[in-house]
Amino acid sequence: MVLLRAAAVASMTLAILAIAGELSSVAQGAFSIWDGGGSNDNWTTGANWLDILGPGAAPANNGTADIVFPAAGGLVQTPLVNVPYSINSLQFANGNGRFVILGVAELTIGAGGVTNNDADIQSVIGPVKLSANQTWNAAAGPLQMDSVNLNGFNLNYAGAHQVDLISLIAGAGNLTVADAYTSTVKMVGPVNNGTADIVFPATGGVVQTPIVDVPYSI
User: Fold this and answer.
1) Is residue 218 domain-resident?
2) 29, 75, 105, 172 - which has most CB atoms within 10 Å?
């Protein structure tokens, strides 16, 4: 695995300061920064999380944690959601490299949503469930998301880069492509359960190009 702790202390400090700026728009509970320092890639391994004051600890699993993945050193990293986890938000900080978050268990995301502040595509390959209305913001680069359970909540898209849904959309709720979203929606997963509404409001004069690659029931 990639050991981010091997990076220079000065570089990590700069990354933390940059992350703090990027998190300014998030109503923070307690943000946790991945550094990949453990003996495995599990989310529950405390040594995988940065704590500049002492030994790391895994994020709180109660819907309050703001999860941050910093610069990946130009390599692909694969954090593993190894138990069901509930967080407030998921953010990919500006830097060089890609994260592919793997999930053998469900990741529940709250009102903070998902934001990509990096130019690389960032992926969540595993089941995701919403616990609040939220926005997925492909601000600086694309997002690729796997199976999504709207769970009765509304999901909004924002940003200038593509969001790919590569698997099932389940659960009641709305998926809204807002006029602030200026890129492509690509849905390549299987047929969903027919309860979600997909909303395309006024585009403000911007041409948008949703792509449906397979039959969908909504």
Assistant:
1) no
2) 29
Domain count, the chain: 1
Residue 132 lies in a domain: yes
Q: Which of 98-102, 176-180, 191-195 is modeled with the greatest confidence?
A: 98-102
- pLDDT above 90 covers a percentage of the chain that reads 49
Residue 217 counted as domain residue: no
Nearest to 91 by CA among 64, 52, 118: 118
pLDDT at 13: 40
Asked if residue 186 is part of any domain, the answer here is: yes
Q: b vs e for 150-185, b when ≥16 Cβ sit within 10 Å of the residue's Cβ? A: bbebbbbbbbebbbbbbbbbbbebebbbbebbbbbb
Q: Which two tokens stand for residue 55?
A: 């030994």
Residue bearing the bigger pLDDT, 24 or 179? 179
The range of the structural domain enclosing residue 128 comes to 4-212
Distance CA 209, CA 186 (A): 9
- Taking the model in full, what pTM does it have? 0.79
Q: What DSSP element (H or E) covers 14? A: helix 9-22
Cβ neighbour number for residue 200 with a 10 Å cutoff: 14
